[in-house]
C-alpha cells in the first residue's frame, strides 16, 4: 500500500508550507496546498484522498464549508484547523477532529493518525 494522500487547505501561505513540510516528513503525500475555495473544492472533488486538513476561514469572506461537505459526501475524514476553537459552526461540519492553531508537528501527527488509522 502506498503513502496516504492528504489534502491541505489554508489561505496563509506560511501555514500551508509548514503543513506541507510536516506531512512530507511524516511520510504522507500532500495534495495541494489549496489557498482558495475554488482550488480546494476542485481538489476535494477530483483527487484520490485518504484525509484532509482544512482551514475553516479562507479569508476574503470564504469558508471551507463546501469543501468539508464534499469530503463528507465522499467519505474522506478531515481535520478542521482553526484558531477559533470548537463551536456550532465547526460541529455542524461533521469533521473527524479539530486541530487548534497554532499547532506543533506532534499535534498534527497525533490528529492525523487518529482519523487515518
TrEMBL record:
Biological process, per Gene Ontology: phosphorelay signal transduction system
A Pfam family: Response_reg
SMART domains linked to this entry: REC (SM00448)
Response regulatory domain: residues covered: 5-116
A single GO molecular function term of this UniProt record: DNA binding
Coiled-coil spans in chain: none
Modified residue annotations for 4-aspartylphosphate: 55
Keywords carried by this UniProt record: DNA-binding, Phosphoprotein
InterPro entries, A to Z: Bact_response_regulator (IPR050595), CheY-like_superfamily (IPR011006), Sig_transdc_resp-reg_receiver (IPR001789)
PANTHER family recorded: PROTEIN-GLUTAMATE METHYLESTERASE_PROTEIN-GLUTAMINE GLUTAMINASE 1, STRESS RESPONSE REGULATOR PROTEIN 1
Name of this protein: DNA-binding response OmpR family regulator
